[in-house]
Amino acid sequence: MELPKNTFKQALAEMRPQIGLWSTLSSNIASEALAHSGYDWVVIDMEHSPNEIPDVYAQLQSYDPSPTAAVVRLPWNDPVVVKRVLDIGAFSLLFPMIQTAEEAQAAVASTRYPPRGIRGVSLNQRGNRYGRIASYVKEFERELCITVQIETTAALGRVEEIAAVDGVDGIFFGPADLSADMGYLGQPGHPEVKEALAEGLAKCRKAGKPAGILTAVEADSIHWLREGYVFVAVGTDTAILARGADALLARIKEGTA
């Protein structure tokens, strides 16, 4: 067997816009429904949802045969969790709350086997198709996509040095945490936050790395895609379900009043 191509990594390297979705439902049924909805990528979120390793495993099984790339957002920059997520077959990772180049280097090191890193070695796991991809240990780095998340003003000031870390394929900005750090908790659309996000995009362009972002407002998604953000998550599955359910009930009540 051959190592599967990481189409998401290739798209980022070519700066081709990728429209994505955030998934926090922690359900393989939801992932099966989303896998063929036409999005370029979907984040399986382990930071702000009850996703654990078996849950992520089942969701990867939905995305692997589909045209939608699965990106796993880790709960933290923890090499033990990284090792387990890679072993169950993830090839694209998003590390939250990266503050310095040193933290980015540690993140990359946790994904590499010795002597290039500290990842523990298992020769029979889902990532290498249970030992059937003999070239995995030598070639997996080629298909591994590492993105890191900028969520504070301090990190925003270090975007270029973080982007320069070998092995970092993209820089992702988190408006919710960034807005809180700037003193605008719950206001990710504040003008000063948008200014900071534009600054981050400019720094990524200068560094030659693709920038990504999660938005909750359609107009913002369109705006940032037009401005040059490459990988943009345009919504969250739980929000789509909640808002859709609310809107349906409101229409029914209005129609029968």
Structure write-up:
- The protein has 257 residues and is an alpha/beta fold.
- The protein has one domain (7-256): Alpha-Beta Barrel (TIM Barrel).
- Helix content is 44%, strand content 16%.
- The protein has helices at residues 7-13, 28-34, 53-63, 79-87, 101-109, 136-143, 153-156, 159-163, 175-181, 191-207, 218-227, 237-256, and strands at residues 18-23, 41-45, 69-73, 92-95, 145-150, 170-173, 211-214, 231-236.
- It has an 8-stranded parallel β-barrel with strand order 1-2-3-4-5-6-7-8, surrounded by 8 helices.
- α2 packs parallel to α3 (53-63).
- The mean pLDDT is 98.
Approximate strand percentage: 15-25%
Distance between the termini: 62 Å
Quick one: CATH superfamily? Phosphoenolpyruvate-binding domains
Q: Measured on Cα atoms, how large is the radius of gyration?
A: 18 Å
Report the CATH topology name.
TIM Barrel
General form: globular
Structural classification: alpha/beta
Lateral arrangement of strands in the main beta sheet: 1-2-3-4-5-6-7-8
**Helix run count:** 12
Average of pLDDT: 98
Q: Specify the helix fraction band.
A: 40-55%
- What is the count of β-strands? 8
> Helix-strand pattern, N to C?
HEHEHEHEHHEHHEHHEHEH
* Tally of domains: 1
Question: For the record, what CATH class applies?
Answer: Alpha Beta
Give a short summary of the structure.
The chain is of the alpha/beta class. The protein is built from 12 helices and 8 strands. Helix 4 (79-87) links the parallel strand 3 (69-73) and strand 4 (92-95).
